[in-house]
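dumping this here before i forget
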Amino acid sequence: MAKLNDKQAALFTGRNWGVIATIREDGSPQATPVWIDYDGEDVLVNSARGRSKVTNIERDPRATVTVLPAEDQQSGYVMVSGPATIDEEGAREHIDKLAKKYLGEDKYPYLGPGEQRVIIRIRPERIDGFGAGG
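structure:
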């Protein structure tokens, strides 16, 4: 397992958006802008059952997340690639944490009826970066 340095970790814990790339059933890439987090070991993306990225990971666990600093996107990036797992435990609390980070709201305001939140955990095997993420 690769480990993010402090500078790279700060991009994931700061108020920056990421893009998660997964692999569709036909082998083509699927990329989605997402809220991101880091727990000291794994890169975290919160999602919901039935969404493409979750379905893709359940079939093929390879994933990559790229993040650029919101305040200066020209200053660099960090990209984390590795196997992803789906975790239901704590997913509702995690989306509330992300709502606080990104929206300033205590509770995630867009939860749909019956929506089942999940955490996508990407275990870093490869870390690439430049500038702010180097």
